[in-house]
Amino acid sequence: MSSAHLAVIDMQRVFADPDSPWAAPRYADAAAGVRALLPAFAGRVTFTRFLAPEQPAGAWRAYYAQWPFARRPPDADLWTLTDEFAALADHVVDTTTFGKWTPELADRVGPDGRLVLAGVSTDCCVLSTALAAADAGAEVLVVADACAGVDDDSHVRALQVMELYRPLVRVTTLADLLAETEP
Question: How crowded is residue 97: how many other Cβ atoms within 10 Å of its Cβ?
């Protein structure tokens, strides 16, 4: 596991704030899992942020018509990483898409790399990132108890869908993943 790279997906205020329309009810559980993972991936962590585009195009226009509160500039408070992670985020990738498998993240993982995913939301940005990375040839591990969905049922269903992509995508637990990293 020493060459694996951890991508912490969208641990932002917009998903943490219980009053946000996009709140992930188990955000705190995902945050606890992320905190437990970080020491095992020192120097090999990328945090991501979802941002609204300046001018939505295509189907994104209808999406933001449904969610007008999110039409905020990149420096808006709702897009910042939560305080506990902002101070730890040495490397951040911003995207206006659900999937975070960008050329920058791909370069950090490497052509034959292993990508470990944690964060929110399991049923949107984690899922979109996992499938794109797997398509590109990365081995993907999704840490189930370091992720949270829009609700418990959606979280479980997304994990079940990702497990269908085995061996390209493997759903694991924090305990099992950390056991793999021990000497």
Answer: 15
Cα separations in angstroms, 122 against 43, 75, 110, 112, 148? 24, 24, 23, 24, 5
- pTM for the model stands at 0.96
Using left for φ > 0, alpha for ψ between -120 and 50, and beta otherwise, residue 41 falls in: alpha
Cα–Cα distance for residue pair 180/90, rounded to 1 Å: 25
Report d(CA 89, CA 183) in Å as an integer. Answer: 26
Residue 1, pLDDT above cutoff 70? no
Average pLDDT over residues 61-73: 97
Length of the chain, in residues: 183
> Quick check: 94 pLDDT over 60?
yes
Contacts of 180 (CB under 8 A, 6+ apart): 1
- Give the pLDDT of residue 56: 97
Stretch (H or E) spanning 85: helix 83-86
